[in-house]
What does this fold into?
Amino acid sequence: MNHRIIGTTLPVLELQLESGESVVAISGELSWMSRSINLHTSTQFGGGGLFAAFKRVAGGGSLFMTEYTAQGAPGILAFATRVPGHILPVEVRTGQTYMIHRHGFLCSTPGVDLSVGFQQSLGAGIFGGDGFLLQRLAGTCQAWIELDGEVVTYDLGPEETMRIHPGHVGMFEASVRFQITRIQGIRNMLFGGDGIFLAALTGPGRIWLQSLPLSNLAHALRPYLGSAGERVQEAGAGAIIGSVIRGLSQR
It folds into this structure.
């Protein structure tokens, strides 16, 4: 199986499958495919049975996963990112485990084991927010991970710690210890604008950080979205203007 990543800001993962080769992905990720690609959707993909599927959902994934198989002839399959970012190929070997952010898994070859992965207690995960809800990526496969914005990588030595805003945690090796720390000082927590909690990642191991958390993107776009009423009025005005233009063009 060959693959290439097309583009820079909004990349596309293009997979070239030989006849009989397969790729699995969570439901709703498909962008385009050639005629020879056959689809099969089930809860059984991604490792384990129905209970494992519910664990996958708890980690931010979907209950159903789709297997794409080239039948009778080679085929092309493509997955595009939804926001500006990068697609990283990761080879997962037996005994290797990665923790990735809840929407990071894009697709993989069969043999992936995808489930919820907490390296902290459930209570800490809730208080830490969505950024601390992590997927556990294991098994034996070739996987592709989607990280948002630019990607910065650090190799942490033993007991070396990096404190990170939760939304910027993209992926890290399971050898890295994960815990939640609180920003010191009441004034810093209330008026610093950096939230209350930080993720503390302690080596040894590699970590991948992302520069564009989805929460930051949503916050930046909020002033331009307007209220629901404004959107309805704008849609109505647009329809009236469009009708006038069409009427003039038909004369």
Remarks:
- The chain has five helices and 19 strands.
- The CA atoms of residues 90 and 177 lie 20 Å apart.
- Residues 121-131, 188-193, 231-241, 247-251 have pLDDT under 50 and may be disordered.
- The longest helix spans residues 228-249.
